[in-house]
């Protein structure tokens, strides 16, 4: 408290809170907006801008997420051992901001669009720049992840426990608030068109706004620099734990001969060098970490809501009446449901289960959470089956498909030469667009245009190229000389039409009746609302698995080992994302619904294994165990003191005898 008085209270206090925490809260909100906003549109950027297939886009997306959960371990070690939390946040935030700017620049198609057709001519430049940007972002966001919350907690004194708890509640509210707003806003920005020479989807703006928010986050944090309490680095417990475990393994291997007696636990081989209390604490941590082994499979499924589920939404109908939902906006349901389900679970569901007399332990909650996640992927698989029924069947690489449309009134006999070729669609239009082309059956040239696209002049008995149009109503202007026809049609999502202007077409007020529309590819008919159940189940699973898992881990670990468990927890997330890479690249299932069912089956199998492990787990009280060791140590210290006291008394007594003998000798010599 004295240190607090001299180091922390020099800054102003508002409503009982150090003013410095307000800078930290704003910093966290902006940083989370930046991260989740960029991540929301990332997989679509890979697919549509970089033109990667679904598997490659999914693999790179999950590699990035995995790195974001590996680098926190590095950030914690750097902050606790060398730079301190403040400098680590500053330096890595700069790296983070540079990465976001690099992503925004990589999405500007005009940089390498030399022929100005809207497609980059040097895709390598954009790929390399985006990969560098993602690596810097992963290093930055992961590196500051373990530092910001802890740095905020450092601003409070021990007697401000209530204020500290309120700060952490507001802090995590900012995380979900930033996530919610960004997943709503950035997909809207992505849906806009921008460009210097040609108008394309504005991924540069969708990445640019998160980059600007990251710069704001950094500036806000620096502005509060003079008000922070900056604790000096005191060493990282993870390094001590790793050294102790390493010594135990090395010492056990050195004494592997049967000549040496066995010890109760393999960690006991570290007793020659390390304190018994530290060894006991590590044993408790290892017991929890052993339970972490099956957990990555949950994150394998959970993080696919930003990849596979978003790609699934691109083939669905996002029309909600007056509101049109973008595929990447469906992720918004996750933070909304989290903010709703957490208080409901804590205040209604869990107490109700307890009243029913069922012992719903943390490990049982986690098991149910894993099962709900598996059920969510079953729902995703069922939805995919419905989507597949509406998809067109395109010819394989060894097949061809030919459509003959007779625009006349009489039968025709058609003979095709051997070298006959025609360009046509070989896939469903992407991003929910509609592919439209016109066929001119008139004897004169026809000029076709709309507000979004100019089809140009179509010569007699020829067709225009396909042009992509958004959903909604479109009015086309059909001109031939001085004659004009206004033709209106409403499109859905992902359809393809060939519009015929027959030879019998006449201009006038009823000209639209003469136009013939041929639907080549049906619009997306499976509604995005069908994804809501799978989002509900995966979020309910997250609340029961993730929130409960952290609570359980913290209750079973010593107070000074929380960081070790946090590192282990984040590692399970990283491993889970790497599993997605393995399955996506090795399995390569031709049907997406089969992949969803495969992941669900794997999680159910892991869920059974985890439930067996949980059944044999014995809950412990780390505080009680530490107290026992402290008591034993106190008793040992007391015994040591007693021995030293007896030794001192013995020495004193011997000294007294020698003193008497000396006095007698002196008297004799004097006599």
UniProtKB/TrEMBL annotation:
Listed Basic and acidic residues bias regions: 641-652
Reactions accelerated catalytically: a dipeptide(out) + H(+)(out) = a dipeptide(in) + H(+)(in); glycyl-L-aspartate(out) + 2 H(+)(out) = glycyl-L-aspartate(in) + 2 H(+)(in); glycyl-L-glutamate(out) + 2 H(+)(out) = glycyl-L-glutamate(in) + 2 H(+)(in); L-alanyl-L-valine(out) + H(+)(out) = L-alanyl-L-valine(in) + H(+)(in)
InterPro entries: MFS_trans_sf, POT_fam, PTR2_symporter_CS
Localization in the cell: Apical cell membrane; Cell membrane; Membrane
Biological processes per GO annotation: oligopeptide transport; protein transport
Residue ranges, annotated region (Disordered): 629-671
Gene Ontology, cellular component aspect: apical plasma membrane
Segments traversing the membrane: 9-27, 62-83, 89-111, 123-144, 170-190, 202-229, 284-302, 333-353, 365-387, 563-584, 596-617
Domain of life of the native organism: Eukaryota
Membrane topology annotation: Multi-pass membrane protein
Protein keywords: Cell membrane, Glycoprotein, Membrane, Peptide transport, Protein transport, Symport, Transmembrane, Transmembrane helix, Transport
One GO MF term attached to the UniProt entry: symporter activity
Entry annotated with the keyword GTP-binding: no
PANTHER family: OLIGOPEPTIDE TRANSPORTER-RELATED
Protein family according to the UniProt entry: Belongs to the major facilitator superfamily. Proton-dependent oligopeptide transporter (POT/PTR) (TC 2.A.17) family.
Free-text function comment from the UniProt entry: Electrogenic proton-coupled amino-acid transporter that transports oligopeptides of 2 to 4 amino acids with a preference for dipeptides. Transports neutral and monovalently charged peptides with a proton to peptide stoichiometry of 1:1 or 2:1. Primarily responsible for the absorption of dietary di- and tripeptides from the small intestinal lumen. Mediates transepithelial transport of muramyl and N-formylated bacterial dipeptides contributing to recognition of pathogenic bacteria by the mucosal immune system.
Name of the protein in its database record: Solute carrier family 15 member 1
Natural source organism: Oryzias latipes (Japanese rice fish)
